[in-house]
Q: What sequence folds into this?
């Protein structure tokens, strides 16, 4: 039980995928302009990350490994991720047309969010079992959501404050992200998973 | 060697086929009928069908907005409609585009009946079928149906249609919305500025010197 909790703490805070491992920076910078959009993106990414982590684990363990096809893992994972993203897109389009419109191109772009492929590959490196893969994917998604929502909230406040001209827009965003990453370094050594 | 390659290709093809079938099923299961967002936009438009936005009615304009058209082209709706649309679509409200006409008080068309020659031209022009009459007989406007869109004024050969402003009476009078109370139109260039309650940004002069 403790180890599962440690996996969650590790992926959310200590080895945060965005700020410590620098995966998934594209949606982190791209969809953080508005809090509501960031929340929608977080939900969609959480769904995709968890599901694709489990699916790629299953595909690897029960299909590739018994057939000695481990060299096909990357292309198989990409296939799995693409399917999960397509599925998510259909569900979002049906359930929330407005979110579908707001997320726009970023929804299909979850496919190329390297955090998603990163989780699938790191699962293999860490020899995670089924439950661990599930938690690892879910924890990574929670960490991503946490950071994305914090960052979006900060950018909303930055948007109305008096930023020097040279720093306006993406520049101050990058500086803020860097400071956040420094802050997250403070969690290093909290758990060693 | 060759068997390995064939197995690899077969496995990938098999996976792709299974996933394709799954997606095909999901596409049927989660099919979206029409476009629900267009319905929501259409419900916010004033349904005058006046065409001042450049589209042949409110529904076509709603579809155009859904495809990225500007939301400030509806003079009959005025600022209230623009703000409601901005809320729905999560975009910044903009001032009304003057090119498409100014917001006006609610008006209604009235035919001076003794001058009407019964040409039926205004009947054909009316987008909401609010004009009654037959050829060579006097026409009249059903006041409750008229949206005040002006489209019948132009075709009338004897200019017997007047647009009468409806003065608010004791039943239809309301307070003016607070946004319109404290500013003349065009006084505040950016509608969002008016809504910021507090900000730590400095005065205009400092902004200007930095720029």
A:
């Amino acid at each position: 039980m403790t180890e599962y909790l440690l996996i969650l703490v590790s992926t959310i805070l200590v080895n945060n995928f965005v700020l410590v491992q620098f995966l998934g920076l594209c949606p982190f910078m791209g969809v953080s302009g508005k809090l509501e959009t960031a929340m929608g993106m977080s939900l969609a990414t959480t769904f995709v990350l968890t599901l694709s982590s489990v699916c790629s684990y299953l595909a690897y363990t029960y299909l590739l490994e018994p057939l000695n096809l481990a060299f096909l893992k990357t292309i198989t994972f990409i296939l799995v991720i693409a399917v999960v993203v397509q599925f998510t897109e259909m569900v979002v389009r049906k359930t929330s047309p407005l979110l579908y419109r707001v997320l726009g191109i970023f929804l299909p772009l979850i496919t190329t969010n390297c955090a998603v492929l990163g989780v699938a590959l790191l699962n293999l490196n860490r020899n995670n079992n089924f439950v661990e893969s599930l938690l690892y994917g879910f924890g990574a998604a929670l960490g991503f959501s946490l950071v994305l929502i914090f960052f979006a909230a900060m950018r909303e406040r930055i948007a109305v404050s008096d930023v020097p001209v040279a720093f306006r827009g993406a520049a101050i965003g990058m500086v803020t992200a860097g400071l956040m990453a420094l802050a997250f370094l403070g969690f290093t050594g909290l758990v060693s998973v | 060697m060759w068997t390995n390659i064939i197995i690899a290709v077969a496995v990938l093809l098999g996976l792709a086929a299974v996933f394709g079938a799954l997606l095909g099923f999901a596409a049927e299961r989660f099919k979206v009928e029409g476009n629900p967002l267009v319905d929501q936009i259409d419900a916010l438009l004033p349904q005058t069908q006046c065409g001042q936005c450049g589209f042949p009615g409110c529904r076509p304009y709603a579809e155009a907005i859904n495809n990225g058209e500007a939301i400030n082209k509806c003079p009959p709706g005025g600022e209230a409609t623009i703000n409601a649309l901005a809320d729905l679509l999560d975009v910044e409200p903009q001032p009304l585009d003057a090119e498409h006409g100014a917001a006006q008080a609610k008006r209604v068309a009235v035919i001076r009946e003794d001058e009407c020659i019964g040409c039926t031209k205004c009947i054909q022009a009316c987008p909401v079928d609010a004009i009654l009459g037959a050829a060579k007989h006097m026409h009249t406007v059903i006041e409750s149906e008229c949206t005040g869109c002006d489209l019948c004024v132009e075709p009338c050969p004897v200019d017997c249609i007047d647009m009468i402003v409806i003065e608010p009476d004791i039943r239809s009078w309301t307070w003016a919305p607070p946004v319109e109370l404290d500013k003349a139109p065009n006084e505040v260039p950016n509608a969002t500025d008016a809504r910021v309650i507090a900000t730590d940004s400095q005065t205009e002069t400092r902004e200007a010197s930095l720029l």
About this structure: Residues 35-64 of chain A form the longest helix (30 residues).
